[in-house]
Amino acid sequence: MLPQPTPRERPIELRNADPTQEQDVRPKSAAAVPPSHSQERHTTASPQPKPPPPARPANGKTPAKPAPPKKPALRTIGLLGAALVLICLAPLAYKSCSSPDVQEGVKMNAGGPIAAIAVAAKGERIGVIGPAGNPALHLFSSSGALLQTPSPLPHAVAALSPDGSHMAVESKDGELQVWDVAKGQAVVNMGSDGSHHTDTINALTYLPDGATLISGSNDHTVRIWNPADGRMIQRLQTAGSVVSLAVGGDTLVIGVRNGDKAVMEVWRRSGGDPVNFKSLVSDELPVGPGDPKTVRVAISADGRTVAVASGAKLALWDGSLHAANGPGAPVAGVAISPDGKVLVAAAGNDLWVWHWDKEKGQLSDGASHAAHTSAVTAIAFVPGLNRWVSGSQDGSAIIWEIP
After folding, report:
1. pLDDT in tens, 137-148
2. Those residues with Cβ within 8 angstroms of residue 287's Cβ, 6 or more apart along the chain or in another chain
């Protein structure tokens, strides 16, 4: 902070801009008493006898009085300069204080734009995938250490098993494989009996037990698999192309695009039976600026709280939709804490954070935090760390602490 001027350095305010008029510099208590008519032209601060008035020149005009001193004006300019410096420094201070609760942690480098992030449910491994045109799996520990040489992948759509030992990945349009992460090769072909998807796969997720895999496709279906033998267990028909998936407890939430409409579908199973998902809710979402077909979903661990975004519109669902004040830019990804109390979205170069008060049913105003130097492409919660991880087109993945 720049030093503030002492009272002596403050400029005297020139109240009368007419140089022919004298300035009244008396204390306010004295200046408040109006001078008599005889005192108007000759004011003095001392009790000395009044000097005789100056003689008028022959032409009868009153001589011009000297201009007021310029030193106070120079001091004013100096203070204005100091103020401008403070104004210039203010954005820097604002940038670092805009979201003081968000703390940056370990930064990981993927060597190119990041297309997706896959987190093992136990939080011990973080898979950073990219770039989209030539994807590879960069496997990091929770401390940010690169665990093995990046493994080339056939596609950027992938999901890590809960223990991080296997990865489900689209092999080609509609077909799905399970890879051994350590070996960097496929070990199971899903749907080899012809039960595979008939169009591009856009979303993959494991159930927490690791024994069930779920995929969603442009063919308007969600398919549930046994990843050990590649057998399809159940097929769900959706209202349109599936673009995102999330599972919490016995609840499956699906982000669907249907023409120009964005739809959130909620399915629920009973008794923990993976083949018993039944449709519960199908809600059309409000569409804001950005691509309405880009529907992102996330869900709390108990399956009771859902975060959903379409274009630049974002909402929280707990049986009914609660609109959030959106970031004003298309949302690239959403994530929610296991307890459902913290919602984080990626938009532009920033992360946006909201807090949900379940008891009051109130969602806080969103707070932004400058996160990356290029667009954020992915955001995920890391359960084992109780932290968040973001990925960006700038090639970096960053672990964040967001209380």
Report:
1. 999 998 889 999
2. 260, 261, 262, 310, 311, 313
